[in-house]
Write a structure and sequence with these properties.
The chain is an alpha+beta fold. 39% of the residues lie in helices and 19% in strands. Strands 7-6-1-3-2-8 form a six-stranded mixed β-sheet, covered by helices on one side. α3 crosses α5 and α3 runs parallel beside α8. It is globular, with a radius of gyration of 16 Å.
Length: 199
């Protein structure tokens, strides 16, 4: 996995160089249950806000019951608002691919299965789209993972999930699903990216 940091170094440097102002930017990432994704990125320095929601489908059926039917086209996702002067899009992708989820799993993550749990990036700009494609190409070219990367680049809107899903891991730290599936991801973030971790 060390090669991932070397392979991504040039991309990270290029992304960081573009962040000259203190404006915020947005990233939308899907990688299984949004509880865990939200929990990881809430602990990243430079991230100002993380919202759990549904990406890739329509507005009318962007609700948990409908999305769970696996027929709406949505993916559980998070919308990350971040300061590019403190953390780059490349660094967010590095965290996404190494600790937030397993990018080699197709239409599933851990105990959850179905298209709504797929690995997908929803670029918010054409620059993000080009960057994400290049990032994935570099990972594939370097054979970073034992299995092919299943992550897709997709388009579509983002719709915030119901209020009870927001900050779920923070509000229910001892819920068994969180303890087993999501707490280890936050621990991995702290171990692998100590300079980017915030309590």
């Amino acid at each position: 996995m060390k090669r991932l940091f070397v392979t991504a170094a040039a991309l990270i440097a290029a992304s960081t160089a573009q962040a000259a102002s203190s404006r915020t930017e947005t990233a939308v990432l899907a990688g299984g249950c949004f509880w865990g994704m939200e929990s990881v990125f809430e602990h990243v320095k430079g991230v100002k806000d993380v919202v759990s929601g549904y990406a890739g489908g329509g507005a009318k059926d962007a609700n948990y019951d409908a999305v769970s039917s696996e027929g709406t086209g949505h993916a559980e996702a998070v919308r990350i608002t971040y300061d590019p002067a403190q953390i780059s899009y490349a660094q967010l992708l590095q965290i996404y691919f190494t600790v937030a989820h397993d990018p080699t799993q197709l239409n599933r993550q851990g105990p959850d299965s179905g298209p709504s749990y797929r690995s997908a990036i929803f670029p918010q700009t054409s620059q993000q789209a080009a960057f994400a494609r290049a990032f994935i190409a570099r990972l594939n070219g370097a054979h970073m993972f034992k299995a092919p990367i299943a992550t897709k680049i997709e388009s579509g809107g983002f719709y915030p999930a119901e209020a009870y899903h927001q900050d779920y891991a923070r509000k229910h730290p001892n819920y068994p699903y969180i303890v087993v599936n999501d707490r280890p991801k936050v621990a991995a973030l702290q171990k692998r990216f100590p300079a980017l971790y915030k309590a």
